[in-house]
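tokens incoming
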């Protein structure tokens, strides 16, 4: 089956510049991974060219086989214990004041990699004490102690993507559980109410508008108040096909609906990804007087 041609609104200019090459070299020399590269993010040129990136920890291979994801499978060996410090050094070199850290899923590890997340948060805070830190975590197979390990390291915001509507989980996230993801967000809000939670969905996989609205309700019931919505883009012929290219106008309608239902802020557009407007979404939840650090460039991964 051929891949659907993309509409004009999904075509991006490739503005490669010296900064883009500098970021690539920094990551390569630091033996670091980014979700920008591993997941074939359409915003990579924009992000790298503006000096931003979303760090991918726990290696570059995942234990799961989600139908939408381009990340390589089957991890080889334990996580590198020096990875957290290298992430911190790279963030410092980039002079970031808002640092986003995500990971592959590591179901092969006893704590799912939670300790590694905590170490990365701590190392970044040591190098950049005024920086704000957002973590985008896997479900840790529902482990409450693993979640607590991450929360105890005090990230500024915790993100966990619901990804799609529950009906599509068997094809999109066959090794995940919709209710388990909702429970994780609920537990996070109860265990650390001072840490805002955030989630994200892809559209264009065959979901209906009513199904999306139900997911919005379910997320709000967990006390999640920040949301990202973006177009699913098929990474290769071996991944799930795109059922629909959702128009920019429809994305705006989804945003308006989500805001009207109770979300504090929503980033909703075809090329939005989990870390899009990361700092802007975070700062919308707190008074200006509580925001520390110099103004950051908008991270658009």
């Amino acid at each position: 089956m051929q891949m659907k041609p993309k509409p004009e609104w999904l075509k991006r200019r490739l503005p490669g510049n010296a900064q883009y090459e500098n970021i690539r070299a920094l990551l390569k020399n630091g033996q670091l991974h980014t979700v920008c590269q591993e997941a074939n993010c359409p915003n990579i040129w924009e992000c790298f060219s503006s000096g931003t990136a979303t760090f991918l920890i726990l290696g570059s291979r995942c234990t799961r086989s989600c139908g939408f994801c381009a990340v390589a499978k089957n991890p080889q060996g334990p996580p590198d214990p020096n990875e957290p410090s290298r992430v911190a050094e790279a963030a410092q070199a980039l002079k970031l004041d808002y640092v986003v850290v995500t990971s592959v899923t590591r179901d092969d590890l006893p704590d799912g990699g939670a300790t590694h997340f905590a170490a990365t948060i701590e190392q970044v805070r040591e190098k950049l004490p005024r920086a704000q830190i957002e973590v985008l975590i896997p479900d840790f197979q529902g482990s409450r102690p693993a979640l607590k390990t991450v929360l105890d390291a005090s990230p500024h915001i915790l993100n966990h993507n619901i990804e799609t509507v529950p009906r599509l989980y068997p094809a999109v996230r066959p090794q995940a559980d919709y209710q388990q993801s909702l429970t994780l967000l609920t537990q996070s809000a109860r265990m650390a109410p001072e840490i805002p939670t955030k989630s994200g969905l892809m559209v264009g996989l065959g979901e209906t508008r009513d199904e999306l609205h139900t997911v919005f309700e379910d997320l709000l019931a967990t006390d999640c108040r920040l949301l990202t919505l973006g177009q699913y883009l098929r990474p290769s012929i071996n991944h799930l096909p795109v059922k629909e290219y959702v128009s920019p106008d429809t994305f705006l309608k989804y945003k308006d609906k989500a805001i009207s239902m109770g979300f504090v802020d929503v980033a909703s557009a075809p090329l939005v990804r989990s870390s899009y407007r990361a700092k802007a979404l975070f700062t919308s939840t707190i008074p200006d007087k509580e925001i520390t650090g110099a103004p950051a460039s908008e991270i658009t991964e």
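note: Confidence is low (pLDDT under 50) at residues 288-301.
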